[in-house]
Amino acid sequence: MDRKDVAIIVGLFSVSFLIRYLGVANTCMYPDEWIYYTDMHRILSVSFAPIRPDIFNYTSPFFSYIGAASTPIFGNDLDTVRVLSVFFGSLTVPFLYLFGKEMYDRKVGFLAAVLLAFSAYHSLYSRIIMLEAFSIFFITAFLYFFWRMQRQGEERGLLYPVLAGAMMGLAVDAKYISLFLVPAVAGYVLWTTKFDIKALFERRIVVMFVSAFIFVLPLLICLFSTGVGFHGLLYYSMEKYEKPGAQSRLSSLPINEIVQRGTDTITGVFAWGSDKLIPPAEIAFNVAVVLLILITIIWYLFRVARREREATFLVISVAILHVLLFVVSPYKHYYNYTLPFYYLMIAFFVLQTVRKKGWIRDPVALCIAVLALIVIAATLFTGITSPMWDRGEYSGVDDIVGYLKNDAYSSGLHDSILIGTTFREVVAEYSVRNHDFSAASTRIIELTGPFEKNKYKTDLDKIDQYQPNYLIFTELSYSRFYFSKEVQARLLTDYRIIRDYKEYFLEYIVLKRVTPVARNESAVYEPGQGGKINAELFRESIPGEMKVGTPYPARIEIRNTGSVRTTYYLALGSDKFVIFTDKPVRSMITLDPGETGTLVYNLVPYRAYTEELPVEAEIYTIPENVTPEQAEDPQAENWARQKMDLVVGSVYRITL
Q: How far is CA 81 from the centre of its chain?
């Protein structure tokens, strides 16, 4: 690596970081962000000890552990943690340059890296707390070290096999989808050696896989010591699609829907932001991307047929990745993993085309050059401007919450405002908090039956019970699952549509209640019921000053002051965007008359705060006609549970 390489690497990283970082504050919360965000707080609540199954279940907590480790230093508010994704997403770009330079030459590597640096879609997922930017970094680093291993042979001993294995292991630790690298390497080796099985046991290959296993081993130990085992892998490969009302795999969809989704995915991932261009430019960008990718794939297949090592490695890797994505849920953001491969393939194909003498007089070569020019120019423009226009795929939620705030206040609604949503309610709550809007939210969907196509449907009974002031339905732009004709027939007697618009791939339908809200807020106690919280003990357990990232046990002692055996539900809460409340295994307790019981919650502050912050402990009795699900629903407090007692403690200062 010479000075020119160093300058290019620094420049690529700096530009990538700037584009991604400038858009962080404008990006609205994604539903999955809260999952990884919560795992960070759970890790802090047990002081990093790998003992909680809920941290290791479903997905690997590698990224969450890094976020938790940075909390005591930088704090843990959403935008601060997002910078981790910005860093890893930006660092991927110079590694793609190095990989392209190692596989082909400097110009190819530079063009591929520029395309990734300015990719609006990769930039978007480098601004949020999801695992794509994090895991793609390790995948790209593996590609570079693996190809150095292939190019260097035995010249550098076992350094590059060990480094390649380490990156492969860390990629798997980051997200299980990275396991596609294992069959990709095997397929590459077998194809280029004409299926010589012995080549798989060549010393460098063996060392690489052993190194990868060593880096995965700590995760395996934690998975089995917590009793999780391989449940995460089994869930995402089988269990997720077998449970009642499970979501469909891409492969199970009708062929016309697969084709439609495929086209939408190519343009959505590689031409993200094309809708911000003038109509002719938007069409040109989308068409050019589709044609250039298809032509590049066909061109590369001929090189694979000749067993060219470079083409074989890229095509087999991306082919196995596509096969994997074909049998999982059809989420567009999964195709972020194809970006390093396709951008490198496009870069080499285009540069090879224009390097030919007299290419400008060749109509085919000229068309390819024009397509490439359109894609490069549009990618640069959308990437550079993305911090200004790209607020994420859930920006419609933030817009609607602002609209509802104005509508509610102009209608005279100021208290007890409830919003029903078909998406995870924390997304609405985050926007509610940012808009300083006095409202709560609840999810209005339920699991479907075992023979229904969709995983969820609108829970009309819950809407009838809770009577939200507003309802927000989100639908895919080409279908309506939740706001069906049957649902409309039931709802439009009590609600009217006040807004209906599309943002990105989602359609938002907003309804406002027009009939009076009549929630049952009366407390109907069973004869002889009573209960009290030990207020002094609770307030003593809430320190007036807290330190970010440190767990504090809150002790709630409950005494049955009634004359009958009673089951109590305990709700402990504060501002969820400042303090994480870690619920114990059980939040209900049954006590005989005169008996006392204690529940302990861990409170973990994760951002600095200088104002008084209340922490409320409430106990409720659970009526016989209320299901356990209703009892656990935090939005059901006022009309499903019967409040017995309320005690408030206060935190006055939270510091780093």
A: 13
Are 98 and 340 contacting, i.e. CB atoms less than 8 angstroms apart?
A: no
Amino acid found at 160: Y
In angstroms, the CA 585 to CA 203 distance is 49
* pTM of model > 0.85: yes
Query: Rounded distance, CA 420 to CA 426, Å?
Result: 12
User: Alpha-carbon dihedral of residues 338, 340, 341, 343, nearest 10 degrees?
Assistant: 110
For residue 2, what pLDDT is reported?
A: 86
Q: Which of 260, 262, 257, 269 is nearest to 341 (CA)?
A: 269
Determine contact, residues 47/628, Cβ cutoff 8 Å.
no
Residue 225: strand, helix, or coil: helix
Q: How many CB atoms lie within 10 A of CB 507?
A: 19
- The reported pLDDT for the residue numbered 631 is 59
> Within the chain, what is the greatest distance between any pair of CA atoms?
97
Strands 588-591 and 566-573 turn out to be antiparallel
Listed in sequence order, the residues at least 6 apart from 454 whose beta carbon sits closer than 8 Å to its beta carbon are 245, 247, 448, 481
Q: Is 358 exposed, middle or buried (0-12, 13-18, 19+ CB in 10 A)?
A: exposed
Considering only CA atoms, which of 258, 242, 239 is closest in space to residue 250?
258
Q: What is the dihedral of CA 55, 60, 64, 65, to 10 degrees?
A: 90
Write the pLDDT tens digit of every residue in 204-262: 999 999 999 999 999 999 999 999 999 888 888 887 776 554 567 777 778 887 888 88
In this predicted structure, what is the pLDDT of residue 586?
Answer: 64
pLDDT at residue 43 greater than cutoff 80: yes
Q: What is the separation of C-alpha 235 from the centre of its chain, rounded to a whole number of angstroms?
A: 17
Tracing tokens 């010589």 back to the chain, one arrives at 196
Query: Would you tell me how many other CB atoms lie within 10 Å of the CB of residue 147?
Result: 21
Crossing angle of the two packed helices 62-74 and 159-174, in degrees rounded to 10: 80
pLDDT for 517 equals 77
Exposure of 621 in the CB half-sphere (CA atoms within 13 A): 22
pLDDT the model gives residue 451: 47
Q: Is the pLDDT of residue 635 over 50?
A: no
Which amino acid is located at 586 in the chain?
Answer: R
User: Does residue 529 register a pLDDT over 50?
Assistant: yes
Q: Among residues 251, 406, 237, which one has the least CA distance to residue 322?
A: 251
Collapse the DSSP code of 12 into the 3-class scheme (helix H, G, I; strand E, B; otherwise coil) and give the result: helix
- Inter-residue contact 89 to 16 (CB < 8 Å): yes
Per-residue pLDDT tens for 504-518?
778 899 999 998 877
Amino acid identity of residue 206, one-letter, is: V
Amino acid symbol at 66: I
Q: Tell me the pLDDT band of 329, cut-offs 50, 70 and 90.
A: confident
Q: Which of 89-103, 465-479, 486-500 has the lowest mean pLDDT?
A: 465-479
In Å, how far are 17, 584, 599, 634, 643 from 621, measured between CA atoms? 52, 18, 16, 14, 7
